[in-house]
């Protein structure tokens, strides 16, 4: 039964690209929604059709409570008191992804996790494309989901954040995977990490095949009715085996890919490639295509990306590191006799950086903390840390001191929103600044 929206009072929260895609969706369905944005000057205001009523600068209580259906953008917390009140009154609150999955018939591969989502999703997209599939990558990356409804597709790959999963209820994935679950976005969830974890694991609910990471206890998921494929440990279906210093991606007892023969950098990207291999096998993509794509796949921009090397000094842009666990992963991937110069800071989102303390104290490292929570983070490892106002000040100081074999690592462990539009802008400034001094 197709969903009927024309007689509903529909409200969209958020005038971003997602919000605009929702307006266009409903207009095609014969419904005229209203839209609200908490900002007084949203970026895409001029894209709103003239017949759409909107309000700016806050959540209009009257509009919310008189609605039948509310579509919420991922940037707006589902746990605001006014939205809790709306739910208690029986008002349906969903995401654009929920609208999308109600409409599509083609299979869906759903990918979530605290870290690595974009890399795995992009790897699988490239493999599917080379295998002859008409495929779209949507969700937390790529196009707004509703924009591809009018296009023919054999397969959809959904990269899903916890923010999106909060309001998805009809997702039926052919394959679903949770890559990892570590502390992140604790400022978003009233019940803390337990709530964040539950939302992440909800991706498995109606999945046909569940890919489960046995290496991470937080990812444990068991349901007798489900088909499982495991990865991560030596007794999994898919695992990484180190043989004479080389890491091999393995399936059961078969060595599939020697990672030293790939362009991938960093152990976490070997793990990402392992998941892409597992998904590809479950989809029956040709193995020769899988191996070829993974062999030539390069780290995505802003994700542990070596952006400059001069006088044997390496500069690594890991601006996508927006949580503590991703910073620790990045540090573990650096092997150098020199000093690591770590750029750390931004909005820590209520995360506990003390979990890094013992690890940082063991390293030959100097830490430059910047941004909104930089001063607070600098207290954790005081003897090795210095607080500066911003990225530019940090790089100016580091560039005068870095020597041969040193590594300058931008892996902030924080959201960029305090000083930047997004993590891409932060990473691009890092690249621009280092080019100016080299």
Write the layout of secondary structure elements.
Blueprint: E1 10-13, H1 17-28, E2 34-37, E3 54-56, H2 61-65, E4 69-72, H3 81-88, E5 92-94, H4 96-103, E6 108-112, H5 117-130, E7 135-139, E8 155-159, H6 162-165, E9 175-178, H7 193-201, E10 209-213, E11 227-231, E12 238-243, E13 246-251, E14 254-258, H8 267-282, H9 287-296, E15 305-310, E16 313-317, H10 324-332, E17 340-345, H11 357-361, E18 365-370, H12 374-378, E19 385-387, H13 391-399, E20 407-410, H14 423-437
Parallel strand pairs: 1-2, 1-4, 2-3, 4-5, 6-8, 6-9, 7-8, 9-10, 10-11, 16-20, 17-18, 17-20, 18-19
Antiparallel strand pairs: 12-13, 13-14, 15-16
Helix pairs in contact: 5-8, 5-9, 8-9, 13-14
Description of the structure:
By secondary structure, the protein is of the alpha/beta class. The chain folds into three domains: 10-94, Rossmann fold, CATH 3.40.50; 99-296, Mur-like, catalytic domain (UDP-N-acetylmuramoyl-L-alanine:D-glutamate ligase, 3-Layer(aba) Sandwich), CATH 3.40.1190; 305-437, Alpha-Beta Complex (Protein-Tyrosine Phosphatase, Chain A). The chain has 14 helices and 20 strands. It has helices at 17-28, 61-65, 81-88, 96-103, 117-130, 162-165, 193-201, 267-282, 287-296, 324-332, 357-361, 374-378, 391-399, 423-437; strands spanning 10-13, 34-37, 54-56, 69-72, 92-94, 108-112, 135-139, 155-159, 175-178, 209-213, 227-231, 238-243, 246-251, 254-258, 305-310, 313-317, 340-345, 365-370, 385-387, 407-410. The strands form four sheets. A six-stranded parallel sheet has the order 7-8-6-9-10-11, with helices on one face. A hairpin with a 2-residue loop joins strand 13 (246-251) and strand 14. The model has no long low-confidence stretch (mean pLDDT 94).
